[in-house]
């Protein structure tokens, strides 16, 4: 499910830099649901405490209502947050208003000396789950203990209890801090492992560009969302089997790596990937002229780059992205690629053509467009 969510995110913008995902954005995704859940629990507990309080506590209704509204505002901020800083602000304010509301009830019932310590200990442990880091946790707890009506010098604590109240507070804070540190570390490791899994699942290990799985899923999803139009270019390295047979597979791997690097450079910012073997694909956004320009750059860049002492060329077949069926488009582009091979290689063919036109691309005498 995590990888599926990543695909939905990266394919929406077709971002190929999978390992540059923001840690803050990742933390937002991990923290938002538990943070909102705990804030709703705090609101429910606060309303329940007010509902079961003695009748004379109703006199604090106006001030108490302000605390409830503040807590609701914090929940709203957390719900609308688009980064973990705003999520922290929402959670921080919710907990402060919850603490202020409990303070009003405890003081009104004159039970503050008895219930403040267990309430504070409960909040100290539970809040650790939703805070993004240890420093934020300590800041929230320091503020929370100021809000709650605790006075270690009152008679109920001053006589016969020794240092037990301080021990309870310190233990709760220490446990909460350890939980916060552990979860912060766990989230970081989870992010690293997730990005590595995404990298392994969606990047070609030899060429370091996206693989067939990423290309197919990302382009299909973008087409379904109508976020992508243009031309599909399918590339095939000319006479690649001869390279492997004559120079060995190490040279063949070097050719694949270099061609992949060229494609990654020319198609930077565009969906591209290695489909398998010596076959690659690119989606060129825009009109036919844009696709022709990219094809010309690719042919020229590969042709001008000696690889392992050999002259390498590629052939390109192109097809307009006319529907949501990427498989059909790939079949049409593959037909054009076949014609490019038969026509002499080191060239591009478009399929289908709206009109019967035979022309040469201005950037290279090797580029030729023919009718289907």
Task: Please tell me about this protein's structure.
The protein has 372 residues and is of the alpha+beta class. It has helices spanning 2-13, 23-51, 61-80, 84-109, 112-126, 134-147, 155-158, 164-202, 212-224, 240-247, 249-266, 288-303, 326-342, and strands spanning 230-237, 272-276, 279-285, 314-320, 348-350, 359-360, 368-369. The strands form 2 sheets. The protein has a 5-stranded mixed sheet with strand order 2-3-1-4-5, with helices on both faces. Strands 6-7 form a two-stranded antiparallel sheet. A hairpin with a 7-residue loop joins strand 6 (359-360) and strand 7. The chain is elongated. It starts with a helix and ends with a strand.
Q: How would you summarize this macromolecular structure in one to three sentences?
A:
The chain has 13 helices and 7 strands. With 372 residues, it is of the alpha+beta class.
